[in-house]
Amino acid sequence: MENKNILITGASGNIGTELLRGLKEIGCKHNIVAADYMPENDSSTQQLFDTMPYRRLDFAKPEGFDLALEGIDIVFLLRPPHLADIKKYFYPFVAAMKKHNISKVVFLSVQGAESQSFIPHHKLEKLILAYQMEYVFLRPSYFMQNLTTTLLYDIQKNKRIFMPSGKLRFNWVDARDIGLVGAHVLNDFEAYTNQALEITGSDFAGFGEVARLINQHLQTPITYVSPNLLRFYFAKRKQGIAPAMIFVMIMLHFLPRLGKNQPRLTDVVEKVTGKKSTTLEEFVKREAGKLSQV
After folding, report:
1. How far is residue 262's CA from residue 171's CA, in Å, rounded to a whole number?
2. What domains sit in the chain, N to C, each tagged with a CATH number?
């Protein structure tokens, strides 16, 4: 495939940063254009590529889509967690992609999206298919980085993991592995066209097990508390989290308790990158600096 111009949306986030890191690591042959809603505040990501153009892209402001998409051949599409209304925010964006003759997209979805019609990822996958685009759906399992982002407030301030997950066990995957898989896919898009790749790690663990692992390696007093939904909602509202984001957290951490099937493990990370996936223990050791600030 000849050199293409690739737009990376959500470039400053966890996955965007790791994707850019991965593209640099493999020596990507294409031209990378980063995009975010406040590019002027993201000097750290821009440092990964000295000459990387950075464009402003806000999915809530469709008037900026044309400038963001000009000259682009492939889009890496990342949905911001708080934007769940696919018709409002992403119908116009995908239509703008078609207007600019952009027919190739790599979408960061989620494991199980194909069978969960109520989640935004499923609806966005359907939208991409409806436009008959060439696609790759990346469907990762539960991010290890949730420990250092979404869950970090309670870990640091209250010395606990606070989620309504009961005894639910998650398959944990490192965003760094997701980024590296995405980098290989973007670098050789034709080899993966019209595929859905489930990206998982090798660990199944519940939050109680994770708390014990953190304590074991970092000598911290973390506990796991599984509140009922009402207690969880009001605790997060008191913390200042918007209702829409709380419902996303409930969707990810409570609703899977109602399912009967445990998500499967895959070897996609090793097949695509040639490297073993990061274990949860390796992640805890690597991120000890953040996790031990309790």
Report:
1. 9
2. 5-144+174-201+262-275 (3.40.50.720)
